[in-house]
Specification:
273 residues; mainly beta; Immunoglobulin-like; Lipocalin; disordered C terminus
Length: 273
């Protein structure tokens, strides 16, 4: 293929029916191609060597432009082209929102043997988001059952629940409560909060992306968010490790936390929250 690109949103979803327009340095259009349902744009039309301007557009998204330099092979490989929603997205209405565990995930990733990753998730959690009229005054709190860790391996999960790691019997709940919010873009914020884990409380920031609000099939309104953070196990007194060879530990000292959250408008939390 002479032209190839993958058009995606910032959170990784394909942008269907995006249009890629290629112009030469005189401003003459030399190529136009549409993305398919998977966001992939490809064209077999060869391009003469030289520089080109590539503009990617899609309804509801801000256009993206970049320069492509085509070599003797006549190929323009654009890779992933990320489109931002036009004007950001409309913020959720103020009020109480309840996390929907059935359509949310709380995961963590750790490096294993220095060459791969182990993915885990917590299967029991609840949370509440309070959207304030002044968005930076909004708050979030969440409680996770430590014993609900699931990595797909029963022996590993048992070890993770033990005093070497989560010590789920002594510290059954992992709690996060925010105390501030800083804008980081049209639909992005840094959430400042306190994480209580393994009997220790420390300030932890979340990088939060707001994905939008809309009606659901059950007559409610829901909002979607994605958030990430990095934690050091040593900060929470989880020092266990096994060195398998010089300089390489069985389990990495840093965890990447990945949250995909849907929240339903209204306050339907259990009494414990």
């Amino acid at each position: 293929m002479a032209l190839h690109a993958q058009v995606r949103t910032r959170d990784g979803w394909a942008v269907q029916h995006a249009v890629v327009t290629v112009t030469d340095m005189t401003g003459t259009q030399v190529l136009r191609a549409d993305a398919g349902p998977d966001g992939v744009v490809s064209s077999a039309t060869p391009l003469a060597p030289g520089p080109y301007t590539v503009v990617v557009t899609a309804v509801g998204y801000a256009p993206a432009a970049r320069t492509a330099l085509v070599g003797a092979g006549g190929r323009a490989e654009l890779g992933a082209v990320v489109l931002a929603r036009a004007g950001g997205v409309e913020l959720p209405p103020p009020g109480a929102w309840t996390l929907d565990p059935a359509h949310s995930s709380v995961g963590a990733v750790a490096q294993h043997l220095g060459i791969s990753s182990v993915h885990g998730r917590f299967t029991e959690f609840a949370g509440r988001i309070g959207i304030a009229p002044d968005i930076v005054s909004s708050r979030v709190e969440a409680v996770i059952a430590a014993a609900s860790i699931d990595t797909g391996n029963a022996l590993r999960d048992k070890h993770l629940k033990s005093p070497d790691f989560l010590d789920a019997e002594a510290y059954p709940e992992i709690v996060y409560r925010s105390h501030g919010l800083t804008p980081a873009g049209p639909d992005r914020w840094t959430v400042h909060g306190t994480l209580s884990l393994h009997g220790i409380s420390r300030d932890v920031d979340l990088d939060l992306s707001y994905l939008g609000t809309g009606p659901d099939p059950w007559g409610g309104t829901r909002a979607a968010f994605r958030a990430t953070a990095e934690l050091r196990r040593d900060d929470f007194a989880m020092h266990y490790n096994q060195v398998v060879q010089a300089g390489i530990s069985a389990i990495g000292t840093t965890l990447r936390v990945e949250l995909d959250v849907q929240a339903v408008q209204g306050d339907g939390l259990p009494a414990a929250l």
